[in-house]
Amino acid sequence: MPYLARICVYPVKALDGLPLTQATILPSGALRYDRTFAFVDEQGKYINGKRNPKVHRLRSSFETKERILTLRIQDSVQAYQFQVDAEREKLHAWLSEYFACSVNMIENGHAGFPDDVKAPGPTVISTATLQEVASWFPGLSEQEMRWRLRANLEIGGVSAFWEDNLFSEADDIVTFRIGNVLFEGTNPCQRCVVPSRNPLTGEAWPHFQQIFMRKREESLPAWATRSRFNHFYRLSCNTRVPASEAGKVLQIGDEVSLLS
């Protein structure tokens, strides 16, 4: 029986995840506290792992009630705390020094800053998929692959690539439920350069994308919608959540069922 095994949100886009036991659906379809904040440069462009490798060496945690962001540079013991409402300018100054450019932190508590604005719901992957993909890269653990791929919802009790059930042809959606929350699966997520890098150091794995694409094509389930793969650097499923689901709560252990 498929079930919800893990929930993880990323309070600051591109920074470390925050594991949760339950999560609330926002009116936008996103999870509360997911990508609520983002760092931008003076042109308003995101500062993330795609554009700035220094992001990978920045450890973070976020206290949702007190709204305190804690930052620490990898391999350093000193931590820096900022109450994001009262100390926003102090935070901007610290970030600007670290990244050696002008940096601001922006906030969107209603919808966050999703990577796929057409499918802003949580991304879905199975635990078995993480285990299988990690095995493609000797010495890389399931946990490190989890950090690299940064999915929101992890499904247990299923085989590798089960989440390929959650999308169909380009003009179709697949409806499914987790607990009492209705989801619409839309497309396999196109990956960027981030999974190819060590999430703690930013060091690149040689030929990561080429290995990934070859193994992904070899492992694609026979029942998966092959037409959705214009290339095979795609993994996990992007989703939308109908407005009717706003305010509902997902919990670890919720059963997962396909409706179409």
Q: From the coordinates shown, what is the CATH architecture of the largest domain?
A: Beta Barrel
Poorly predicted residue ranges: none
Tertiary shape: globular
Order of helices and strands: EEEEEEEHEEHHEEEHEEE
Q: How many structurally independent domains?
A: 2
Major beta sheet, specifics?
4 strands, mixed
Q: Strand order of the main beta sheet, please?
A: 2-1-10-9
What is the arithmetic mean of pLDDT? 97
How many helix segments?
4
Distance separating the two termini: 17 Å
CATH topology of the largest domain: M1 Pyruvate Kinase, Domain 3
* Helical proportion, percent range: 10-25%
Q: What is the count of β-strands?
A: 15
The CATH class name of the largest domain reads: Mainly Beta
What is the strand content?
Answer: 25-35%
Structural class: alpha+beta
Structural account:
With 260 residues, this protein is of the alpha+beta class. It has two domains: 3-31 and 115-258, M1 Pyruvate Kinase, Domain 3, CATH 2.40.33; 37-107, no CATH class. 16% of the residues lie in helices and 28% in strands. The protein is built from four helices and 15 strands. It has helices at 88-99, 127-135, 142-149, 208-219, and strands at 3-9, 18-20, 22-24, 37-40, 58-63, 68-73, 79-83, 104-107, 124-126, 153-156, 174-178, 181-190, 234-240, 249-251, 256-258. A four-stranded mixed beta sheet has the order 2-1-10-9. Strands 13-12-11-15 form a four-stranded antiparallel beta sheet, with no helix packed on it. Strands 5-6-7 form a three-stranded antiparallel beta sheet, with helices on one face. A hairpin with a 4-residue loop joins strand 5 (58-63) and strand 6 (68-73). The longest helix is centred in the middle third of the chain and has 12 residues, at 88-99. The chain starts with a strand and ends with a strand. The mean pLDDT is 97.
